[in-house]
Structure to design on (606 residues):
């Protein structure tokens, strides 16, 4: 959202609204682009965009880190966020089981860290000064180590080592070998994350003792993904698993979708994390902009 | 906008819409807070906010710089933006006349730089590592100097020196001694800024040879302020001056308001920088959320 400066959209009645703003600051009337960003084509069809570009970073510092507990993960995130002064660009957390799963089987080569630690973090900093940024990155990691925020760390010494660290994190499609597979994209406060994952795990254990649960996420953004295999190969457990994952989120102010939207798949669960007044207001907008329900009908809100 | 995570608003019919989201990423349905941010209370009354906090910066590096031409101002901005890797936090440009005006009269003490250069930039970097950030800041300034992007520079060596640099920039209220005084808050592309200011100056010169024009701005955001004194003490030239300042903006995709909104004062000029289709869509929103026109009536859009 922050990187979209302007756009053009076609409304349900055919009107072309051209708001190809190039400015960083424009407070002349309503910021209309916000109507079309993230609304899944239900209020208008985006036909052009103005994107904000930023300077290509000069420095890139990457490390793979092992952490002893979730409290430390949180403190390590806060510590590095402060120490890197706006340059923290990735904080990808892999729960122990998921790291073990990714390393297992056909994966060749030496992993950056041995399996068996409770949490792994792929952390990266992007900045503008190669030497000073590297010094800052390494000093921050060393300081984190002395504060017991991490128990082991491997710093990438070359692009090849950096690529192989990211290859582990990006090998998510390895999950697609599992059947059945239910993937989730939830958002919640960092302070609630451990208890939430514990609760989901306990519920899964009670219902399907032979389930599989893999957790990873963009913790810097408070967004985690759960990959769950449970029930029969035919995926018949889907609704039950979805309910189990989504139900706790309402009470803790979480969201059933951090990144991927609602579409059709999550429509029935929207009211689990958004209030009646919120959904009514969404309907008011939909009615005002698309009274005949022509635009991506049935998505997000039931017709 | 980026620092507002959630809010509560009261709608025209009394409904309280509570969207007190605390998450950085939430893509569950429409992002309703965007309806209320920057709409000047015309679509709902904001009663609560959730603000995003960031780590307090550890380092603060500040310099006052003189630049020989506007091209160099632009290149200096791009250069420092890249070199500081996300830590550039202020890039305040003062045109020659305005710096001279601020230094004039009762202002005591030594200014950081002598008057007479075409442009002055107050630049600041906020970061997380005192020593490395200072090294980076000074190295970048030295490199900019060798590339002829700046002609003189004073780096603040103490909090006192930093405060006195900011005091110059912040002494804007000194303008209020001038009568009449018309203040503007426009946004436009950096590449158009010099020609735009030249055009405004030439028009003022033609119409009021004894006018005063002072220009300064947040160039990092593409936002400049013009302070103009022209015509009789009674402010009777206001409409003429406004037209002169706002008219060129439409053709170059600028905005009549970067920060301060439309309210009543700029309502008649809204169509000079927003299209008919955009204003119609604003009216559609207003009609949908406030059909009786109860909320801040007459502001932004004429009733």
């Amino acid at each position: 959202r922050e990187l979209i400066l302007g756009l053009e959209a076609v409304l349900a009645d055919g009107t072309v609204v051209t708001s190809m703003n190039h400015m960083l600051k424009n407070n002349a009337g309503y910021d209309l682009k916000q109507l079309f960003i993230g609304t899944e084509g239900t209020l208008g069809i985006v036909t052009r965009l103005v994107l904000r570009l930023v300077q290509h970073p000069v420095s890139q510092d990457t490390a793979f880190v092992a952490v002893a507990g979730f409290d430390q993960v949180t403190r390590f995130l806060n510590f590095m966020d402060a120490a890197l002064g706006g340059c923290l660009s990735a904080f990808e957390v892999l729960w122990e089981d998921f790291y073990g799963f990714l390393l297992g089987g056909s994966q060749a080569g030496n992993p950056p860290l041995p399996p068996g630690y409770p949490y792994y973090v792929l952390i990266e900093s992007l900045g503008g000064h190669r030497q000073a940024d590297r010094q800052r990155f390494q000093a921050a990691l060393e300081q984190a180590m002395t504060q017991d925020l991490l128990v082991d760390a491997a710093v990438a010494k070359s692009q090849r080592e950096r690529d192989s660290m990211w290859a582990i994190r990006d090998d998510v499609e390895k999950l697609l070998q599992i059947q059945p597979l239910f993937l989730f994209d939830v958002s919640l406060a960092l302070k609630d994350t451990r208890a939430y994952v514990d609760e989901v795990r306990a519920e899964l254990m009670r219902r399907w003792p032979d389930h599989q649960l893999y957790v990873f996420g963009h913790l810097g953004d408070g967004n985690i993904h759960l990959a769950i295999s449970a029930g029969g190969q035919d995926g018949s457990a889907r609704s039950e698993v979805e309910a189990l994952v989504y139900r706790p989120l309402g009470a803790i102010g979480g969201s059933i979708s951090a990144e991927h939207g609602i579409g059709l798949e999550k429509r029935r669960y929207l009211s689990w994390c958004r209030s009646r007044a919120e959904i009514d207001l969404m309907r008011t907008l939909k009615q005002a902009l698309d009274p005949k329900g022509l635009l991506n009908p049935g998505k997000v809100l039931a017709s």
The first helix of chain A runs from residue 70 to 83.
